[in-house]
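Quality-control log, excerpt.
Job 1 of 2 completed; input and output follow.
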Amino acid sequence: MRGSSMNESTIRKSALRPEDRGPPRVRCGAWFAVLLLGNLAAVASTPSLCPGIHVQVLGIRSSAGTVACALFESPDGFPTEFLRSATNVMVIKIRNEQARCTFEDIPPGSYAIAAIHDENMNGELDTNWLGVPKEGYGFSNDAKASFGAPSFSAASFLYDGRDLGLTIRLHY
């Protein structure tokens, strides 16, 4: 009996010997591959840590100046009082007649966006003597401005807190 007990002990010890498990680099690489493949599906399905409202501004007539996007959460000051009333304002340099504004960490709710092309970078939408804009402007929902700016309700949309892509086309 004692002999069989020794054989069992010898077999167990040999199963744990490092030389029987392969070189350390191979073992480490194999574990890394298992962990990576095991977590790949979880990483791919994980939402962005900071979801937001992503606005692609289209119809920019030149790369001169900047595009300003203002996010409003109420009709107060919409759309003309960017600095005083907007929840968030983003000013973006235009590259190749393209601009994209991103508003992150925004709580769910009802919002409207106004965008302008500030070609001369004076911080405002320039108008002619009749009050007609000389620079590009646009609104969420492609709300139309006829004889004045559109209402907040015409430009408003619901945001549920997840990534949302919008497009605003500028009008000159």
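Job 2 of 2 completed; input and output follow.
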Amino acid sequence: MSLPSRTIFRFAPSPNGLLHLGHAYSALYTQHWARALGGAFVLRIEDIDIARCRLEFVEAVFVDLQWLGLEWSAPVRRQSEHFSDYLAAADALRSKGLLYPCFCSRAEIRAASDGRVDPDGAPIYPGTCRHLSGRERLEKLESGVPVQWRLDMGQVLDGKKEFVIREAMPDPSCAAVERPAEPGRWGDVVIVRKDTPTSYHLSVVVDDAIQGITHVTRGTDLYASTDIHVVLQNLMDLPSPVYTHHRLIVGADAEKLSKSKGSESLAGLRALGITPEDITAQFSF
């Protein structure tokens, strides 16, 4: 699959809460560079987490972005409507013997951990289920035990070529350069979760390819996850976008803004009389 000739950027929030200033910065940053490079700005709703994502938050995304003055190309892709695409991608990886079923709980993984952690701070998976026999795997699968599917990173990296990330820094107008990815630091990452037929890593890679995304702009908190994405793109013969990771907007505590921490929402700021101009005046790109 070859990259389209048109430059396409995307902003892809998860509707598990209300957008805050960090989202505003990322969306405005992305639209700024899409316009500067004569490209398209695409909105995607990343709502694979059905338990936490809610329709009211989806609708709030549209309200907030329109209030900020953003415009996007139609249609808006909602991940929850495309699980079949992710199932097909996972099946393709399974058919190559690159995924294996994992039945371990988080508590079991923590108990078996050797102390190593991945870039997100989670324990590196010790490989417990990787060593199950075919019969043991089949018995567990047939028993209905909750299962997730992990990427066999050892097999992926064994004798394979170096994986590279195409990166334009400090902004997307710069010429893209290649740097080595470091997927080994993630261990055997989850590609299909127990509660949904995909994962963030799998769905975002599939969606970027389907939507023809040429440039990915996102916060530095996702810098390390690019390791996994370029590996999946390579394994599934998908194009790899150019990546730019922008700064994070932080609060008074110098920590990044977060829905889970209750950071002030754009809706809350709007209710206080803050205008879109007040917000955009805080940012420079």
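Post-run check on job 2. The first strand starts at residue 8 and ends at 11.
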